[in-house]
Specification:
5 helices, four-stranded mixed β-sheet, 21% strand, alpha+beta
Length: 165
């Protein structure tokens, strides 16, 4: 009876001990993933669609500040790289109506987009990023609605809708 269990236990112990895995020291895996994860990001148009541009040194205090940065356009080097600003219309943001996951932009009738084009994507993605920095919301969940003075509205839109083109 004793031999009946001894042989399988010895075989299992030998198999586990001899599997070839040896202890190692700490291995260096390099730097952590980086990129555009921190700070403010503006979105400009290019031939390939919307492109995020980091502005890590910018400290936002309001969504209007993000809008002013966007309307300021890309830098000279960013323009040379093919980026352009399609947002050339005036807008105001109703900060009272802004919730962590919702932003309403007011446009004067006759100005601004009439359909969801890249300029709307620039605005939506830039404001979503700004809202995430100001209110701690996830940028992919922020919904932006554009409302003309006549009451006609576009949206709500979320940034990922414009990044898949």
């Amino acid at each position: 009876m004793r031999w009946r269990w001894t042989v399988p236990v010895l075989a299992l112990t030998t198999a586990l001990a001899g599997c070839g895995v040896r202890p190692t020291g700490v291995l260096d895996a390099g730097e952590p993933a980086g990129g555009l994860g921190r700070g403010m990001r503006l979105y400009f148009a290019s031939d390939d669609g919307l492109q995020p541009v980091p502005r890590p040194d910018v400290r936002l205090t309001s969504l209007d500040g993000a809008l002013k940065l966007l309307i300021g356009g890309p830098s000279a080097s960013e323009r040379e790289a093919g980026l352009t600003n399609l947002v050339d219309w005036l807008a105001t943001i109703d900060a009272r109506a802004a919730a962590p996951d919702r932003v309403t932009v007011h446009l004067t009738d006759g100005e601004g987009p009439v359909e969801p084009d890249l300029s709307v994507g620039q605005l939506v993605c830039t404001l979503a990023r700004a809202q995430s920095l100001l209110r701690g919301s996830r940028p992919d969940r922020v919904r932006v609605t554009l409302v003309h003075t006549s009451g006609r509205s576009l949206g709500p839109y979320r940034c990922p809708q414009f990044l898949t083109r």
